[in-house]
Design brief:
16 strands, five-stranded mixed beta sheet, 373 residues, alpha+beta, 30% helix, globular, eight-stranded mixed beta sheet
């Protein structure tokens, strides 16, 4: 089978991740009567029949059944369907197939650019596709649609990790060949995931470790916000039930925490912090101060948290409940004097590690923040 491609699959890196690493050499081609547009609110393209337009793309020839199944998983899960079209190539006109998007996808403004997409979105797209096709047995279209937003969140978390500055003044300055994943099992799980690997790494005496079995909880990047009103010297705490405490059989699984939420794909941690503050606590005006970004449990989890102090007003009339019904959030909000919050840490009633850290950080900066009023 021959397929005409016009969008992100023109990227050789993404094409390899989707097709299973088997080279698919594209042949330049032109499709008359169609134009490529951006999807509204997204970075991916769609194609629409447009009189007088010409789309430049490429033809992938000799698609195998296995490759077609992977392409269908990647495109068909979101309603794209194969249609027959004719394209112009250097060898003449050619009958091929093309994935056509559903009619109900909204078209955005302007033109879609492969170069612009490649510069900022190619790497996360490859990472998301890699996780998708690591699942065994292969996922159904419905399963892919349900989990794709998590694949993208984790892909962007990996992209941020690859791109962020990592100071090395005391710890070992890691090199590319210091850690080797010898074997990896397909990830297990629905929303999050559990990954089993066999790994070896460079030891401090410069020798290689044995091949060691390890399991890692595959989580996400999240933004945390501790709202603080320096004039009233109070913080806002969020109370909700937590399944980790339930499964540990803690008799008190309702926990006091900061505002928190996952960083979405193509969203910065700061943007996520402001969005979550609105969604969980109704706070629309806030000045963020970065506290720290950290792994809460790096021995067993990929979770990475971006913690902020949110300077804002917290009047007595502030709402007592928050969260989005669409996300099944059942949140109670507490306005707490700072000294009372520290007392709750000392008593153990506040026992969520990130909140403990954030309150102690605030304790060190509190006098300066209040003096600036």
């Amino acid at each position: 089978m021959d397929i005409f491609i016009y969008g992100t699959l023109q990227s050789s890196a993404l094409r390899g991740a989707v097709a299973g690493g088997v080279p698919l050499n594209p042949m330049p081609a032109h499709l008359d009567g169609y134009a490529v547009y951006p999807v509204a609110g997204d970075v991916v393209p769609l194609i629409r029949a447009t009189a007088g337009a010409v789309t430049q793309g490429a033809v992938l020839s000799g698609i195998t059944n296995a490759q077609l199944a992977r392409l269908d998983a990647y495109e068909g899960a979101f309603g794209y369907r194969l249609i027959d079209v004719r394209v112009r190539t250097q060898a003449g006109t050619k009958a091929v197939k093309m994935f056509l998007p559903p009619d109900d996808i909204a078209v955005g403004q302007g033109e879609w650019s492969l170069e612009a997409w490649t510069e900022t979105h190619e790497t996360p797209a490859v990472l998301a596709a890699t996780e998708l096709f690591a699942h065994q047995p292969p996922m159904s279209h419905a399963q892919i649609r349900a989990r794709w937003h998590m694949f993208e969140k984790r892909a962007w978390a990996k992209y941020r990790a690859q791109s962020q500055a990592s100071p090395v003044t005391l710890r070992h300055d890691a090199q590319n060949d210091d850690v080797t994943i010898v074997a990896q099992q397909p990830p297990q799980g629905y929303f999050f995931g559990m990954l089993s690997v066999h790994v070896k790494y460079r030891q401090f005496d410069a020798t290689q470790s044995d091949v060691l079995p390890r399991e890692v909880f595959v989580g996400i990047d999240a933004s945390l916000v501790l709202p603080y009103d320096p004039a009233r010297d109070r913080v806002l705490l969020v109370e909700q039930i937590r399944m980790g405490a339930v499964i540990r059989q803690d008799p008190q699984p309702w926990m006091l925490e900061p505002i928190a939420g996952m960083v979405d794909a193509r969203e910065t941690p700061r943007e996520a912090a402001l969005r979550e503050s609105i969604e969980e606590a109704g706070i629309t005006q806030m000045e963020l101060r970065h506290i720290s970004s950290f792994y809460p449990s790096p021995g067993s989890s990929t979770d990475y948290f971006h913690a902020y102090l949110g300077l804002c007003e917290l009047p007595d009339v502030h709402a007592s409940f928050g969260g989005l019904e669409t996300e099944a959030e059942d949140l109670r909000l507490h306005l707490v004097d700072f000294t009372q919050a520290l007392a709750l840490v000392r008593s153990g009633e506040i026992n969520a590690g990130p909140l403990v850290m954030m309150l102690y950080w605030l304790a060190s900066e509190r006098d300066t923040l209040r003096a600036a009023l």
